[in-house]
Design a protein that fits this description.
This protein is an alpha/beta fold. The chain has one domain: Rossmann fold (3-Layer(aba) Sandwich). Helix content is 54%, strand content 14%. The strands form 2 sheets. It has a 7-stranded parallel beta sheet, sandwiched between helices. α6 links the parallel β7 and β8. The structure holds NADP nicotinamide-adenine-dinucleotide phosphate. NADP nicotinamide-adenine-dinucleotide phosphate binds next to α1, α2 and α6.
Length: 253
């Protein structure tokens, strides 16, 4: 199958590309930094890449045309970043970039892909959210949590719409907890628990996407955490989240 992966130059995206290559799929790797992307392509053994800054409208529009032409069978909307800080401290410009990348680009790519996939009644879309998107909120990482809630919410709605149409198109959401990637370096934080490896998360994501799973939560501890959070009052969850994020931020500064 022809697969397109955003955020393919590092972390979960790069490991998803590696795993798809192992499964003998063709991979088109997308990210904004050409140098990093070319290096990642060599590592993955792919010779197809597309440089695109997904925070920039015009560049996204060009990518959408490319996707409409190429019609990949599998789309992995993975590119994303976060930024630690109290809401009044984080620069608005950075938050808008985050919203453009984590929400707007992912939204537009999903819409374009869904249209041709529904027409051919075949295809797979994986939207990478986070366990953050399953929580009521995330103080000190507030905009990131909110973007991931958006991804979780609208992907699940599309899942139900496709089911009601008896469609063969698969839409899943990936909701990992901490994963060992460049995420913290970019976000300005550190993990308070041992992260999963991105190789493990990538394999779990792709295996479960192909099994048509609606929400993919890698790792037993995170699955249990999400399960028990359902019975925990919102105010307590917010307070726990604030304490965890505060520690993560302090540890890195
Ligand atoms: N690590 C975690 O703990 C964790 C947990 C839950 C969910 N996630 C989610 O997993 C996804 C992948 O993150 P990661 O952990 O693998 O982090 P990562 O190693 O920092 O990878 C992020 C990827 O996104 C790309 N990217 C960043 N800005 C971009 C832009 N403007 N345009 C196009 N691509 C851009 C980066 O490539 P370039 O720099 O080349 O553009 C890179 O390939 C994200 O959506 C993240 O929110 C991560």
């Amino acid at each position: 199958m022809k697969c397109l992966v955003t955020g393919a130059s590092s972390g979960i995206g790069k490991d998803i590309c590696k795993y798809l290559s192992v499964l003998s799929h063709e991979v088109i790797m997308v990210s904004s930094n050409k140098e990093k992307l070319v290096e990642a392509c060599t590592e993955v053994g792919s010779n197809t890449y597309y440089v695109c800054d997904l925070t920039k409208d015009k560049e996204v529009d060009k990518l959408l045309k490319f996707i409409e032409k190429e019609k990949p069978d599998v789309i992995i909307n993975n590119a994303g970043f976060g930024a630690f800080g109290y809401f009044d401290e984080v620069e608005t410009e950075k938050e808008i970039e985050m919203i453009n990348l984590n929400i707007i680009a992912l939204h537009k790519i999903t819409k374009v892909a869904l249209k041709y996939m529904e027409k051919q009644n075949y295809g797979y879309i994986l939207n990478v959210a986070s366990s953050a998107g399953l929580m009521p909120g995330g103080p000190i990482l507030s905009t990131y949590y909110a973007t991931k809630s958006y991804v979780r919410s609208y992907t699940l709605s599309i899942y139900e719409e496709l089911k009601s149409k008896n469609s063969n198109v698969v839409v899943s959401v990936l909701a990992p907890g901490p994963v060992d990637t460049n995420f913290n370096k970019v976000a300005g934080g550190s993990f308070s628990v041992k992260p999963l490896s991105s190789e493990y998360v990538a394999k779990c994501a792709i295996d479960n996407l192909f099994k048509k799973k609606m929400i993919i939560i890698p790792g037993l501890i995170m699955k249990l955490g999400v399960f028990f959070s359902r019975f925990t009052p919102t105010k307590l969850l917010l307070n726990i989240a604030l304490k965890i994020q505060h520690k993560k931020r302090t540890k890195s500064s």
